[in-house]
Structures are given as C-alpha cells and as structure tokens.
Design brief:
With 367 residues, the protein is an alpha/beta fold. The protein contains 13 helices and twelve strands. β5, α8 and β6 form a beta-alpha-beta unit.
C-alpha cells in the first residue's frame, strides 16, 4: 500500500483512535531465566484436580465454548451466594472493565478513580473520549468519600475503587465502601482483584445496594492469570445489559472449565494463600531492615519506598541487571518506589539477596 493510500486509510480512523500512537512490538521474553516479580502473578501450579478440568476441556477444542458462560455463572452464583442473574463472567476482569466503560461513557462524560490505581483505566476512559478524574487516597486507613462525591468528581458517571488497592496494597474498611455506596446515586465499581489476601470483602453489600458492581478475578489468588477468568457481581438489570454487549463466545473452553473447577475446589488454595501472606510479612521485615519504607499490604505484592536519597527507577534497573524484575511507576508520589510481587520462597530469597547486595554496595560507595 502506498503512503498516500495509507494516509487516506488512517484519515478514516475515529478522532480517538487518531490520538493513539502506533504500538511497537512487545519485548520478547528473555533467554536467560529471570525472577519475575513485576506483574503480581501467583507463580504456583494449578492443583491437580483443577488441572484435570483444563485437560478435559482440551478434548472439546473443536466445539465453540458455551455461549453466555451459563455453567460458569451458575457455579459462581452457587459459590458466592447470589443468583445467576447477578453474575457476568469475563475474559479476565479487564474485559469486564472495558464493558463498563463502553456501556456508561459517551464523549465528554467523566469517570472518577481513587488514585493511585490501575493505570489501564486511564486508557479505557481515553478510548471513550471521556474525562478521567483521579481522587488521591491521602489517608491509609479511610476512603476519601467527601472528595469522591464533590467537585470535580461530582458529575462522574461511575466511581472506581480498588480494595485492596493496586499498586499500594492498602485495604480500607468495607464500612467505608458501604458509606460511599449509600451516599451516592451513581454506580460504584469495587475492584476486588486482591481480596482473597485481605481480611474482608464487599460482596455482601450487593443485597442492600443496587448501585454497586463488584469485580473479581482468578488471576491473582488462584494462579490463573494466563487462563483469563473474571467475574462481575451486581443487580440483574445492570448485569443483563452488560452481558448483552459482550462479544459472542468471549471465553474459551479451558477458561470456562478451569473457572468451574476452581470454584468447586477453592479450599485447595489455602496453603497457597497462607504462603503468600507469610512471605509478604518476611519480605516487608527484611526490606525494612535495608532502609526501605514498606506500605502495609493486603495483596500479593508490597510497595516499597527505596531508601532516602535513592531513586525507584534506578533500583528497578539495578535489580534487572541481577535478573530480578520488579515494577516501577513514574506517577507522582510513586517515583521513589518499587512494587514487588510475592512469589515462591526461592524467588523471594533471590530478590532479597540481590536487594541486600545492592544496598551493601551503595553503602560502601558512600563511605
């Protein structure tokens, strides 16, 4: 295609799509083994009984998956004590977030999020030509309810709250979530991606409030990030409308089968969750000894502010040279932090050895 023809084609893009940069090809996986602690995966194998569900599903690979995920939704409804009409199943909770943005936002509308939060929400708002309002979480122990209900967030179409929060790991009381939902006449989207590592959850609020939508995923606590299983729970009229704009056959047969099996065998993950809580506590203590300031976390990661006078991006690069991958965020207030996923004991040992070595070398250099 000539450049002239290409430009003619590109000129037909929507105004929003024209604002997007051309996405470069992603970086290939490194040849040498890395300790991957940058994307909050749960690195353990599926329990054997859950794995069997995946293998059985492969025998049906020639069939389209079940439309509307009805069996998976039935299983989730039974597991979480709601009716099937209260449940939507998705290709990860990220698909469900995209549906919410498409359903609620027109160009010029506004959406609010407690910040810092999941950065993908900014792109979802931009794709709808909507304004994105971020309300800072300034108190570790409570939700900024007044700020979420007043200008500039007052006229937003919906409000996003992640509990526990990513990337901080902070958990606010469910009573705060309830106060926000009770005082608002807008939709409150409660993202509980990490809630299985936390002391409480907001699913019980669905019985009392029709303006609440709770999101869950099996990517974090159930070691299924690569299989893509997510759920939304809300009022049947809202859920039914979201299901009506979902892509046909949005989940594959393996995702459906693994989701059903996980729901039937959640107890098989208790050791997994106990290990992550234990390692989270150990890593927090050892990083504190190295001069990091670690935010109390109720997720499967910790956010650590690097020692005073040092830089988060530098630490990320220094760890990567030692084959340890951690996350860095350039957002205001996070530029001196790294986020470290909690993995296996050997992975965390490798991370702590590398962090200690870097810290010792820095101290020697400044002596």
């Amino acid at each position: 295609m000539s450049d002239e023809r290409l430009q003619r084609v590109l000129s037909c893009l929507s105004p929003v799509a024209r604002q997007l940069d051309v996405l470069p090809s992603g970086r290939t996986a490194p040849d040498t083994p890395y300790v991957k602690l940058d994307t909050n995966e749960n690195p353990f194998a599926l329990p054997a009984i859950v794995m069997q569900g995946a293998l059985n599903a492969l025998e049906r690979q020639y069939l389209y998956p079940e439309n509307d995920n009805i069996s998976l939704r039935d299983a989730a409804a039974s597991a979480y004590g709601v009716t099937t009409d209260h449940v939507i199943a998705g290709n990860g909770s990220s698909e469900l977030l995209g549906l919410i943005y498409r359903a609620f936002l027109a160009p010029g509308d506004r959406v609010a999020m407690v910040s810092p939060g999941f950065s993908f929400n900014r792109k979802l708002a931009m794709l709808q030509a909507a304004d994105f309002v971020e309300v800072a979480l300034t108190d570790r122990h409570s939700l900024p309810i007044e700020q979420l209900l007043s200008s500039p967030a007052a006229d937003t179409k919906f409000i996003l709250v992640a509990n526990p929060n990513n990337p901080t790991g902070l958990f606010v009381p469910v009573a705060d979530i309830e106060r926000l939902v009770a005082q608002s006449d807008r939709l409150i989207v409660l993202d509980e991606a990490y809630v299985d590592f936390a002391p409480d959850n907001g699913l019980r609020l669905l019985n009392r409030y029709s303006n609440l939508l709770v999101l869950r995923t099996f990517s974090k606590s159930y070691a299924a990030a690569g299989i893509r299983v997510g759920f939304g729970f809300g009022h049947p009229e809202l859920i039914g409308r979201l299901r009506n704009i979902q892509n046909v056959f949005n989940m594959n047969v393996i995702g459906q089968a693994v989701g059903i099996s996980i729901l039937a065998h959640r107890a098989a993950y208790e050791d997994n969750h106990r290990h992550i809580r234990h390692e989270r506590q150990r890593v927090t203590a050892e990083l504190s000894q190295l001069g990091f300031s670690v935010t109390p976390s109720h997720a499967n990661f910790v956010l650590a502010r690097v020692p005073e006078g040092q830089d988060g991006r530098w630490w990320q690069a220094a760890l990567e040279k030692r084959k340890i991958l951690v996350a860095f965020f350039p957002d205001r207030g996070l530029e001196n932090c790294i986020r470290v996923s909690i993995g296996t004991k050997s992975q965390m040992d490798a991370f702590l050895v590398a962090a200690s070595d870097i810290s010792t070398r820095l101290e020697t250099r400044h002596c």
